[in-house]
Here is the input.
Amino acid sequence: MAGQRLAAFAKYKAIGRKGGMMKTEDRYLLVVVGFIIGWITLMGMGVLG
Amino acid sequence: MSGTTWVYIMLGIYIVYCFYWGLRGYFTEKTSSGYAIAGRSIPFFAFLLASTAASFSGWTFVSHPGAIYLSGLAYAFASFYVLTIPITGAFFGKRTWLMGKRYGFVTPGDMYAYYYNNEAVRFLVVATAFLYATFYSALQLTAAGALFHYVTGLPAAFGAIFMGFIVWFYICTGGLKASTWVGVIQFILLVSGIVILGAYVLHHFGGWSDFAAQMAMLEARYLEVPAIINFTVGQRAWTGVMILSYMFALMGIQSSPAFTMWTFGIKDPKPLAWQHVFMSTFIVGFALFFFTAFQGMGAIMLQKTGILEFASDRDVVPILMKNFLPPFMLGVVFIGAIAAMHSTAAPYIGTGGSILLRDIWWRYVRKQQCGDAEQIWVNRLFATIITIAALWVGLTSTAVLVMLGGLATAFGFVMYVLLSGTLWGLRWPSIGSVLGVLAGMVAVFITYRVYPEPLTIHCAAWGTGVGLLVAYACRFLGFRDSEETTQRQQEVRAWLDRVDAPSESGKKWRKAMKVLVPLWYLFAIGPACIIGNKAFSFAGFPPLWSWQLVWWILGIIMMWALCFKAEMSTTNEEQIRQANTDTMIVVKET
Here is the structure.
């Protein structure tokens, strides 16, 4: 069981390194959500005056 | 140079662009379907931008900030239509395109009449399309005329006719393809205009910190949802259920006959998911949740401090433009507003003309016996009639116009009865579809005009609710369809279920979305949004604005899950191949 988990984790890490699992729309979603949160944070920090 | 000079320069450049696409279409589109639905060849990029621009009319640009000025943040929930308008596309867009490809439908009337084996449905859709196109376009053109008057000082009637002429010219010459390519630039102008005006308003206050500090001192009525529901008739209040049902009305925009016809025109469904999630919910959402709100909330504070005086909510945007924008920016924002109005009027006038041509002239007057040239010219004639009718209504019946313009989107939402039956197989007999739509329209009118908004529920929700009730009642009362109709519907269902079957992963996502989407509706824009009055606050935003921002971000994630992961709007090469080859054309084009 633990071996299987380890193998799955290793596979996940390998995929993560290659970036193969994320589709274009998934990457766009992360960028969009990150942008909005960043924008609100900057507003809170007073960057927009 | 003065602001007015820049307005004329920008208008000149814009007219050249519009006329270029119109004349290009005039010399290249030689078939009826080429003119009416762009030969089913609208490309990814063009549909992505143009359909987004068409969804958010001049009303978004001019009236939305004005309505926030009147009612405060409770009304700002309307910005969630960046999600609720395209969610209709997520439900129906892909299957509409598949149906058009397989059966050769040109108009929505073709599709409903074939599926229900019933010509009465066709006439109901034609009536809806004509009224929708006339009154919704009338609203856009009169608003354009009023803005023209504010900025240039020329009479509003002249402005409306001039703006009507521009839109009429490029529709009549170039057809749907011209309207779509002009829509591309209109989208960019629309979003830029909203952002620029909002930014200048914010700048006037000295930035966000000062803006937020002044906003915190406003009375609670501008910063809170007043109630979940009011047990009243005829008194509009932005209660939780009003916000929810008003969003239903706006869902009617993409279920209107015009949008159904536009979807027939796209080359393939690849742009749908991207339009719904990123162009509409994110980009337009970003403009509305921040910059439109800056305009509306800013106007409240400017009025209270005596800096500006707004005679009515309609004055908000023009007065902000004239007072805060430097000359060049005035030109840009003015064209943004005009583009917003044209981007909506154009597809409605264009598809309205095509629907009248195909469903009345070609089918009944000419008995399906006329060639491409005649169809194109009669189509132009009908588009001209709708433009003239829109201008006439707009310039002569302002009071009635406001009422009928408001009815348009509610009538569009009633089309859910036909779309959900045809595309998703909700079962009621053919007579149920006719009586359902009729009853829905009557219910919309009664709850708009005779007993307005009972229980603070918008007429769109009453209309579609009654429509579905009547349609199902016909089924349970024992009405039965003919053998031919039943077989026809079984064939459509079998084909759609085969060609549009979700993957195993898609099925799991769909199961989850059946719970998550209603939950989102309940908390983001439904009765539970009242929790947002005092729930939490961040970065200087009042609690209700913070609530809206959080649920907007969650809404983007929900739309991504619905459109991409649940495969409601995605397609693949095999599906497109099947749609292109597995055809069973039931509608002649010439």
